[in-house]
Amino acid sequence: MAKTDPYAALRIKEFNIFLLVRFLLVFGWSMQFIVIEWQVYSLTKDPLSLGIIGLMEIIPAFTMALFAGHIVDQKEKRNLLATCIAAFSLISFGLFMLTWDKIVGEWSSKSILYSIYALVFFGGFLRSFFGPTIFSLVALIVPKKVYPNAATWNSSTWQMAGVLGPALGGFTIGWIGVHWSLCIIFGLILMSFFILLQIKRKPILNPKIGEPVIDSLKEGLRFVFKTKAVLGAMTLDMVAVLFGGAIALLPVFAQDILKVGSEGFGVLRAAPAVGAFLTMLITAYIPISKNAGMKLLVAIFGFGVCIIVFGLSNIFWISAIALFFSGMTDGVSMVIRQTIFQIKTPDHMRGRVSSVNSMFVGSSNELGAFESGVTAKFFGAVTAVVFGGTMTLITVVATGLASPSFRKLDLTEDLKAHESDD
Largest CB tally within 10 Å, which of 56, 117, 269, 408? Predict the structure, then answer.
């Protein structure tokens, strides 16, 4: 049934609740991120300040990642996610207060800027827990044979939120201002907390509760580095994201190059997510597990080409279309990667494997934002984006030539094995 039913995962009630929670979280987080970007660039008019936002998030996210994975594998997942959401709501409330007229009138711009950076830093600490917890929880909600379908809808929900969050953020900045935009975000996060409580607590499948932290972390790292499919997917995506950080410079393109204002900024920010969302809806009907390695390489190569086109364009609609197609290629990549991770990772190690992935890929988003900001500072935004896209192409070609086994990766047999297990 799971092989042919594109709605297999959606027939599970708790999975639908999980998707709604994730939608609200990603919607709020992505909307908050671009509102912060807009506010910071408005305060500084310095592209390097946008890179610093990424740096402030990557430091705690990267340093805490492995330890967070250990904790996730030791704890009950539903309650741990609820704790993370509650803490995230405090960050949203803090940002809301920092844009209050009274605070803005009494504090210096530098004090407000540094306070925003501090809250982003705390958010990076929380993010080290969010990824592993969500990755582990979804595997406890759906049966193994439905993993690929669940990965498609999970990623589609993430992308839908990524469409609406940035778009709404871009428009609300112009309509009601930064302050009340952040109020909306705070409300969304609180809503996700109460909806999550409708999911029942899940069993802890780790047989080594109380295992020493060092032993636990070593086991997780050994698994990742000996499993070529997992390591290859992580490495390829890490480098592509690191050098494909055009999104971090969108405020510069929207305000100074394309001159389209906050509404155009929202369109540009949403365009990749629209493309990815449409692609992932298609993959619910057309499985992409066969020849998954080659498809992943082609998808990321296409992503690099789109980033280069975006960087060279000074026409708004060409830029938006390039970002749209970058999202389509990234959507294919995302579904394949999530399927690889879910199929290849044992239940008791999901937190640690997801944490390693966050170090490889998640942190490279912020490091890529910092790299783009620094490059733009010294060489200009256009050069920074074109350089990143070119490095992505080089990475894909090098990976394809250096790893024939990854080119030949096929997930069909793994899926058949899981069906027989269930």
Answer: 269
Residue 1's pLDDT is: 39
Please check whether the domain covering 212-421 is classified as CATH 1.20.1250.20: yes
pLDDT in tens, 298-340: 998 999 999 999 989 889 999 999 999 998 888 888 888 888 8
Torsion angle (degrees, nearest 10) of CA 178, 179, 185, 186: 160
% of the chain residues with pLDDT over 90: 27
Res 2 pLDDT > 50: no
- Whether the pLDDT of residue 44 is over 80: the answer is yes
Instruction: Render pLDDT for 212-250 as a digit per residue (tens, 0 to 9).
Output: 888 888 888 888 888 878 888 887 777 777 776 667 788
The residue type found at 111 is S
Q: How far is residue 188's CA from residue 335's CA, in Å, rounded to a whole number?
A: 26
Q: Tell me which CATH code domain 8-210 carries.
A: 1.20.1250.20
Q: How far is Cα of residue 358 from the mean position of the Cα atoms in its chain?
A: 9
Decide if 136 contacts 73 (C-beta within 8 A).
yes
Residue 218 is encoded by which pair of tokens?
């070593």
Task: Say how far residue 49 (Cα) sits from the centre of its chain.
Answer: 21
Domain 8-210 matches domain 212-421 at the CATH topology level: yes
Give the rounded distance of the alpha carbon of 320 from its chain centre: 20
Contact 240, 380 (CB under 8 A): no
Q: How far apart are CA 188 and CA 382, in angstroms?
A: 35
Q: What is the CA radius of gyration of the chain?
A: 21
Is the separation of the CB atoms in 378 and 155 below 8 Å? no
The span from the CA of 146 to the CA of 158, in Å, is: 18
In the chain, domain spans: 8-210, 212-421
Q: For residue 28, give Cα distances in angstroms to 1, 125, 151.
A: 34, 17, 21
411, 343 contact by CB (below 8 A): yes
